[in-house]
Specification:
The chain has 623 residues and is of the alpha+beta class. The protein is 20% helix and 26% strand.
Length: 623
């Protein structure tokens, strides 16, 4: 029989993002919000990648496990996590999936193709002209065209098919002068991991080992913390900061109910990607072997205390840490990170430790699963690391950006990938607006930086210099001010506390009639938009997580410090000419759009917070 006529669809966009992890999701949302007609190609049925319910890696970032909370990532990522915090009271990954799905579904200018795999691309004159995809659920073949593409696949799959330059493995110390790089180049890679979750049933539950599972001894797992007692017995003396290693999430999965990030394998061949399925099968054997050891170990070396625990979930899709790194006009290195480099064309920042995992994962029995090199502070990543050196219209977002392997040990973390994705999405929209290719965007990179700040993000070394922001020139007064805070600082250009610099206003309590912050422009202005950045206290994490100790760090509900109910009064010649009311707010960044209103001052009248005794505002903008 002849095959029926093949179903084939073509579509044209301004920007196409391939890959629906946190980097790709934030890139697509940012591109669409900034006016570009955007498509998001997602091979999975849900968004989030490693942070989704399929894999369940919690989102870490520059705060280094709350060691330096002031540097937590903001922007779209923080907005999504706050939305989740308002609606997800018990750390449900299904609800988190819903939050991401809803954000993409309701976004204007954005079309999502789920269950859609890019299997090839078309290239002409060093430019990608189309991606070829198949949507497995509908048997539909797609040819999607655009002048600009963002590779957020993690593996750099689009770049690989397009012929973009890339690297794998470790560079030698001599190439970049990286302190912790190996003396000789090698093909080591950080491996793939599957996670597991168990539940205490309150009574003994047996576990019958499956035939495919490994048999593992206490000696084999001597450097892998798999029960609480090992926190004190494992030898961490070779690490640069053993106590910090204990405090951070690197060994937080030592309880019996959640683990194990160190159930990790890189494969045996030259390329980790073709071995993905083999590695997955081996990881399954190790994961169930670890659980068998915890449940049925008879060696008596450690009391695992798992008699009442039953497996509730084991991931079937491994999370990947490392594969290809695409080459841009600049390769970020460990030297840049440890020097806290601030680039003129910075569009992102990172702060996670130099976290290099044992190359063979759980098979490296004589080694700790990770070597962590800690430092204080953050570094920036330049725009030149986010686009291809040789494919003119291709950008990157996520762990496939242009870095050395040592730098990847920090930049691969999900929080960094997400805010980098947002920056690339904004940049893609700016390329569309100015009619330029990514490399040609350099004269306009200041617009990208200012957009990141305006949208609730942060870039170390940069501040609000938006000429259209009328609030920058206003005189600011407040109904009350706590000692050490200054109302005028809500327009100092920095929208968060950074160590000793408070950068905002806090009231001295909340009066019976609320608290008021007044912007006096000293002249008539016409406003159509106001932006407020409220306090949410980065000292308390808000991410969805399976880790019990990370759950205990959090508070129920939305951050108490966030302003909840407020009015905004537009005043002219002493008379209120218009009032806007906001009730039940749970977001840090509030954008209030109105019809053009002539006024000479604006009053933010805060009626209540979500529980805090003071009102804190970090930034006010007026357009």
């Amino acid at each position: 029989m002849r095959r029926q006529q093949e179903r084939f669809t073509e579509a044209q966009y301004d920007v196409i993002v391939v890959g629906g992890g946190m980097a790709g999701t934030c890139a697509a949302l940012a591109s669409a919000r900034h006016g570009a007609k955007t498509a998001l190609i997602n091979a999975r049925p849900m968004l989030g990648g490693n942070a989704s319910s399929e894999i369940r890696i919690h989102i870490s970032g520059a705060d280094q496990g709350m060691k330096q909370a002031d540097y937590a990532e903001g922007g779209i990522l923080y907005e999504l996590m706050l939305e989740n915090k308002a609606r997800n009271h018990n750390f449900s990954y299904t609800t988190w999936d819903m939050i991401l799905f809803e954000a993409a579904k309701k976004q204007d200018n954005l079309t999502c193709y789920h269950n859609t795999v890019m299997y090839d691309c078309e290239v002409e004159n060093n430019r990608v002209t189309a991606v070829l995809c198949v949507q497995e659920t509908t048997e539909m073949r797609l040819r999607l065209r655009a002048p600009l593409f963002i590779d957020a696949t993690g593996n750099g799959t689009l770049g690989y098919y397009a012929g973009a330059e890339y690297r794998i493995g470790s560079e030698p110390k001599s190439e970049f002068g990286e302190e912790h790089a190996p003396e000789q180049a090698n093909n080591d890679r950080m491996g793939n991991t599957i996670m597991m979750l168990a539940k205490d049933q309150g009574h003994p539950v047996p576990f019958i080992k499956p035939a495919f599972a490994k048999t593992l001894t206490e000696h084999q797992l001597r450097n892998r913390i798999h029960c609480p007692q090992m926190r004190e017995t494992i030898d961490l003396s070779a690490l640069p900061d053993p106590e910090e290693y204990k405090r951070t999430s690197m060994i937080s999965s030592a309880a019996n109910d959640y683990g194990y990030w160190w159930c990790e394998l890189m494969g045996e061949g030259d390329d980790i990607i073709p071995e993905f399925e083999t590695i997955r099968d081996d990881l399954m054997a190790y994961a169930y072997g670890i659980w068998d050891h915890i449940k049925n170990n008879q060696e008596g070396v450690h009391a695992h205390g798992a008699e009442n625990f039953e497996l509730e979930w084991v991931g079937a899709l491994p999370g990947m840490r490392e594969s290809r790194r695409m080459v841009g006009d600049y390769l970020l290195t460990e030297v840049d990170i440890l020097n806290h480099q601030v680039f003129d064309d910075a569009v992102c920042y990172g702060g996670w430790c130099m976290d290099m995992h044992a190359p063979h994962g759980v098979k490296d029995e004589d080694r700790l699963p990770s070597d962590c090199y800690y430092y204080h502070g953050v570094y920036t990543i330049p725009w030149r690391s986010y686009y291809s050196k040789n494919i003119d219209n291709l950008m990157f977002a996520g762990r496939d950006i242009s870095t050395s392997r040592m730098a990847l040990a920090s930049t691969r973390i999900i929080g960094c990938c997400a805010i980098g994705g947002e920056a690339v999405g904004i940049a893609a929209a700016k390329c569309t607006e100015h009619g330029v290719l990514p490399r040609e965007l350099m004269p306009f990179i200041g617009e990208v930086q200012q957009a990141i700040l305006r949208d609730g993000g942060w870039l170390p070394g940069f501040k609000n210099e938006d000429e259209n922001d009328q609030a920058r020139h206003a005189q600011i007064t407040a109904s009350s001010t706590k000692a050490g805070w200054n109302a005028q600082d809500v327009v100092n250009g920095v929208s968060r506390k950074i160590e000793s610099a408070l950068n905002g206003w806090t009231s001295d309590g909340i009066g019976e009639n609320g608290e008021t912050l007044t912007l006096d422009f000293g002249k008539d202005v016409t406003l159509s938009e106001l932006r407020f950045v409220f306090h949410s206290d980065f000292n308390y994490p808000i991410r969805v997580t399976m880790a019990p100790n990370r759950q205990r760090q959090q508070r129920p509900g939305v951050p108490a410090e966030l302003v909840r109910d407020y009015d905004v009064e537009f005043v002219r010649d002493g008379q209120v000419v218009h009032t806007e009311q906001v009730r039940g707010n749970h977001q840090r960044l509030n954008i209030l759009k109105v019809d053009a209103i002539p006024c000479d001052s604006v009053r933010l009248h805060v009626l209540s917070t979500n529980g805090a005794p003071d009102v804190t505002v970090f930034e006010v903008r007026a357009y």
